[in-house]
Amino acid sequence: MNYSTTLKYLALALALLLGACASPAPTPVELASADYGASISQDEAVAKAKQFFSRYLKDSFSAQYEWGKVDQGWLRHAPIHGGVVVYGYILDVNVNAKNAFGAYTGWKPYRFAFKNGGIETIYGEQQLSGGAAYMGKIY
């Protein structure tokens, strides 16, 4: 297979993947009947997120955070993860931390979903080899 054909297949696969990710939001009826679980306080959510980052980041002691407010909400997993809607309490945070070379990486967004006091799932910015970024499931 030559380079041109490979690029065409790659473009087609990317178009199909992006089209599949455009899933509709839950309906008002689904939102009203959803199980969001027990609420979590801002302090508890931040503590659990920092605990996660202490294991996830190369240099968690250098991390700088911009915390959003915990609020009831939902997110939908990508089709590759089943396309399931996760209901719970959502916390958005931007993180700037040092990499293995000791340089700050720049602010990266993360989204935590909590349910009944625990982390249900986490999405974070992922980089493609060409430099494009997307929010990918990391937990």
Which sequence of SSEs, written as H and E, runs from N to C?
Answer: HHHEEEEEE
Query: What is the count of DSSP helices, taking H or I runs of 4+ residues?
Result: 3
Structural class: alpha+beta
State the shape: flat
Helix content: 25-40%
Strand tally, please? 6
How many angstroms separate the termini? Answer: 36 Å
Largest sheet: 6 strands, antiparallel
Write up what this structure looks like.
With 139 residues, the protein is of the alpha+beta class. Helices cover 29% and strands 37% of the residues. Strand 5 and strand 6 form a beta hairpin. The mean pLDDT is 88. It has one domain. Strands 1, 2, 3, 4, 5 and 6 form a six-stranded antiparallel β-sheet that branches. The protein is flat.
Features:
139 residues; alpha+beta; six-stranded antiparallel β-sheet; 3 helices; 6 strands; flat
Topology:
Blueprint: H1 3-21, H2 28-33, H3 42-56, E1 59-67, E2 71-76, E3 85-98, E4 108-115, E5 118-127, E6 133-137
Describe the structure concisely for a colleague.
This protein has 139 residues and is of the alpha+beta class. It has helices at residues 3-21, 28-33, 42-56; strands at residues 59-67, 71-76, 85-98, 108-115, 118-127, 133-137. The protein has one domain.
